[in-house]
Amino acid sequence: MSIQTRPAPDDVNNNEKAPRDNPQPNGDSWAHEAERQAGKEEEEERGHEQQAKKAAESKHDGPAGGFDATAIPERPPGYTLKFIIHRATNLPMADINTLSSDPYVHAQLYSDAPTRHKEDPPIRFRTPTIRRNTEPVWDEEWVVANVPASGFQLKLRVYDEDPADKDDRLGNVHIYVDRVTDDWPGLKEQSYEMKARMASKRAYIIRMAAVCLRTTKHIRGNLFVSIENLGRTEHDGQNGRVYTVGPCRWIRHYDPMLGRMMGMKEADEDGDEPKQAKEDTPKQQSSQSHSLPKGSKDEKKVKKYNFQANQMQLEGPVPLQLYHRYVEFKPFVKGMFTSSGIRGFILSKALHHQHNRVYSFDSQTVWGHY
């Protein structure tokens, strides 16, 4: 006798409704997933657009540094002028030991010609130093292009060069020209009395003592300057930018202290360039000294530490693509170059001090022309 059993209706329904191991998603879940992905893509696109907009705004306001493509406002070409600094007379005596001076002239040209930025300095010129002379003769020429027809102001300051201390100012001369035209005759070896404003009190005290002792007759000196009008500046694509045409010259500066710090020695007599020296140990120095024969040239020749820095003045104008300001790799760089804020002002002073240290002028400075 066999007995057969059948599942209850509830069991059958439960088996049919049991979930499968790998259920397939329906159309509604696919739609939700697509909407979610589209929303993410839209948010990413908005973020990229905002970043690009911020970068464009910062670039429009001003570059962070490096190459600056800021255009100069266009204006008609100006005039090419030649400034000649001839000589000076009756200069004060800044050096007590020699009862003389080491004078040079520092010139700055100001005009209403626009610049890219307010931090851009006026164009400058410096004459060589005449040693131990209160009646110096320079006869130095300075050619400047695109001087505007609205006129200019030429500031001339006579200094006494003092490498060990701050240079003493001996006097000032300011030349004002209201307007420059095609038929402007210029100036022919015009004499200007030097003003003593901001000048060295020590130098003028020595000068007054010399006048009292009747070794000299005048307290204040005179500076002789000429200005030649060379005509209109040819169209050069500079939009009226003022620049130096000449002279083309080079200046070589030396500094033994920096040479010692950098390990740089002077050039050989054969003309070889100085190379970075390596510090020898006492044993190496003693072995080298014993290996050299007595009385030889190599034994007598002693190389001195000396750092060499060169400046070059080439014929202008400088191409617009070479205009660079600074590279703002750190937040303090902009303040250092623009002297903004207390920290920027202090860093700017330190930067100028180091620059003057490297490119210092003294009796070893060599001048030359191309």
Automatic annotation (TrEMBL):
Residues 63-192 form the C2 domain. Residues 30-62, 273-282 have a biased composition (Basic and acidic residues). Coiled coil: none annotated. Pfam families: C2. Residues 1-75, 266-300 are annotated as: Disordered. One of its GO terms (biological process) is positive regulation of gene expression. This is C2 domain-containing protein.
